[in-house]
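dumping this here before i forget
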Amino acid sequence: MFIKKIAIYGLVLAAACGLLAACGGQTDEANKFINEANAALDKSKPATEKADTMINELMGPNMVKAEDIEQYKTDNKAKFDEVAGLYEESGKGMSEAVAKFEQAGKLKIDDKFKEYVNLKAQEFRKRADRQKAMATYIKAFLAEKDAAKSDQMVGDNNTKDAAALKEANELGAKAEKIVKDNPSIFKN
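structure:
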């Protein structure tokens, strides 16, 4: 009877160890996906920063000072096109990161870890959508010949862009709170 209990406990312990090993393997795999997501984000970061800097210069005081907006658009078309391309490139990198976060979220990992990667996927999906929307907006802005419609486009874009960034930042803050509240899961 005693040996039978030890054998049962041994089987339970072996099963628990096997489960932990399997979960550990999934965690390692999830971390691999997260590292790949971070690499995609690092790769897209220069395009993001350059696009944001350029659009602020193009759509800021220089455009406000321009007497003829159509001429300003024509004179700066190459720069606007470059910015649109940079936003597309950045959005593509962020979309790659989203796919990696989603892959990590499908694995058998701790619930808080899963919640974290799912929030990161949502955050960067929102950021990728924002980048793609900026590229589309720039192209539409360049094509628009009506000054009043151009002004309306700028206002509408600024409102949508601010809302998208706010939502992405909120998702990122929720993910970081999970990290802060669960230090045993997220070790540096």
